Amino acid sequence: MVQINPSILSADFARLAEEARRVGGPEGADWLHVDVMDNHFVPNLTLGVPVVESLRRATDTPLDCHLMIEDPDRWAPQYVEAGAGSVTFHAEAAAAPVRLAREIRAKGARASMALKPATPIEPYEDLLPELDMLLVMTVEPGFGGQAFLDVMLPKIRRTRQLIDKHGLELWLQVDGGVSASTIERCAEAGADVFVAGSAVYGADDPAAAVQALRAQAEEAANGAAGTCAH
């Protein structure tokens, strides 16, 4: 199942509640991607727990919180309590990723782990059963609007192969530079959850942009599946 998660990093921060609703609805966003940055793990500062709490009250779309922060072992559970339905921590920042993933799940959210572009997937193969989603960053985390890194496509493929090898129901998310010109390559490589920022919020009709991206990804994924079947 293809899922589209618009990133509010590209939305108008002065009107977040309205921006969240613009991508909602029956055919709209599957999740709302919330980028949390602390100006330590990444060189940018965005928002925190109070804003997530407010967003949870403002939209029916579930929140997918991506924590680009130091010490996620301490902070991630608070985002579940704030209303996040999925919480992503970075492998490079977590001291005890298995324990953290289990704590996130125990509190009732989906547990996800993110990898920066230079971080390989292979050392984390044994951790995959502890996760509900794996995020492969397709830009360096920290800022929206960056160009997609094509060199990440083989890593997406290797990650999909590991997921399939273990027979896991694990979502594979990509984040960074996802747009109409890149989403098909990501879907063909095996990604099924797509974070799109400016490609959605930079459009005249963000909800229509979500639908168009989903259709592109579904067609590419179906094409790739058909090729594999032969």
Automatic annotation (TrEMBL):
Q: What is its EC number?
A: 5.1.3.1
Q: Does the keyword field hold Manganese?
A: no
Write out the catalysed reaction: D-ribulose 5-phosphate = D-xylulose 5-phosphate
Please give the CDD domains that the UniProt record associates with this protein.
RPE
Q: Which residues form the active site?
A: 35 (proton acceptor), 175 (proton donor)
The record ties this protein, via NCBIfam families, to: PRK05581.1-4 (NF004076), rpe (TIGR01163)
What is the protein's given name? Ribulose-phosphate 3-epimerase
